[in-house]
Design brief:
The chain starts with 10 loop residues before the first strand and ends with a helix. Helix 7 packs antiparallel against helix 8. The strands form 2 sheets. Strands 3-2-4-1-5 form a 5-stranded parallel beta sheet, sandwiched between helices. The protein has a 5-stranded mixed beta sheet with strand order 6-7-10-8-9, sandwiched between helices. Strand 2, helix 2 and strand 3 form a beta-alpha-beta unit. The chain has 2 domains: 106 residues, 3-Layer(aba) Sandwich (Cobalt-precorrin-4 Transmethylase, domain 1), CATH 3.40.1010.10; 105 residues, Tetrapyrrole methylase, C-terminal domain (Methyltransferase, Cobalt-precorrin-4 Transmethylase, Domain 2, 2-Layer Sandwich), CATH 3.30.950.10. The chain has 263 residues and is an alpha/beta fold.
Length: 263
């Protein structure tokens, strides 16, 4: 049923899991996890609770960033022998700021079919909820913790696309402070937390205001920071969705140009 007809090998299924609300688990994801012979999990305790909730009996094995360099070859050999295997992370889609890329890449190199199911990931609802342009965006994920962090921020500060960052609640205030320092405190941004959960919240303001707020207000749960792209004072950029927002939202130069045109 799931055999790779070209090689006789099994198939690797990359299966997204809910980032909060268990109702986001798709029927197809439940079926695949029930049918494969093995599930690779970032944390077997977290995934074990998920499987128990959906009455899935498939065996679990740990596969995470601390052991994937050692375990990947063994998984490939099992796939080559015809085993069908699923990969899950604690929440969301494996490979998006979670383990998954290394195994997927090696499967491609060895001619093993990889099938990624569509499903939950934290940054998409956060991006859409931000109210910032999402027709083009740059996904950064987690910033480097120390080495190269400042240089990376300097580079990102000049990108014209909306940017998306992941951050832990413990580092949120410091990261917002650094973003405000490098990008400018008036840059528009949002912070989303507890995506799809009961207390899901999105805060929208400038980087400076958000940094000030979270300096004295701690939050729980992983956070998604969305930051507006850089707008050059010489070229400016019109918000093409402004007509739907009931506000002009032009850069100062554009506002002057529009006023002159009306005169």
């Amino acid at each position: 049923m799931m055999e790779n007809k070209e090689t006789g090998a099994g198939r690797l299924y990359i299966v997204p899991t809910p980032v909060g609300n268990l109702e986001d688990m798709s029927p197809r994801a439940i079926r695949i996890l029930s049918e494969v012979q093995l599930i690779l999990a970032e944390d077997t305790r977290t995934s074990g609770r998920l499987l128990q909730h959906f009455d899935i009996k498939t065996p679990l094995r740990a596969h995470h960033m601390y052991n994937e360099h050692v375990t990947t070859e063994g998984v490939i050999e099992e796939l080559e022998r015809g085993m069908n295997i699923a990969l899950v992370s604690d929440a969301g889609t494996p490979g998006i700021s979670d383990p998954g890329f290394m195994l997927s890449r090696e499967c491609r190199r060895r001619g093993i079919t990889v099938e990624c199911l569509p499903g939950p990931t934290a940054f998409v609802p956060a991006l859409v909820n931000s109210g910032l342009p999402c027709d083009k965006f740059h996904f950064e994920g987690f910033l480097p913790p120390k080495k190269g962090r400042q240089a990376r921020l300097q580079y990102l500060s000049g990108l014209p696309e909306t940017m998306v960052f992941y951050e832990s609640p413990l580092r949120l205030a410091k990261t917002l402070e650094q973003l405000a320092e490098v990008f400018g405190g008036e840059r528009e941004a949002s912070v989303s937390r507890e995506i799809s959960k009961l207390h899901e919240t999105t805060y929208r303001d400038t980087l400076g205001a958000l940094a000030q707020y979270f300096a004295s207000n701690q939050v729980k749960g992983e956070c998604v920071i969305v930051v507006a792209g850089f707008v050059s004072a010489s070229t400016g950029r019109r918000d093409k969705y402004a007509q739907y927002k009931g506000a002009s939202r032009l850069t100062p130069d554009e506002l002057r140009e529009d006023s002159s045109a009306q005169d």
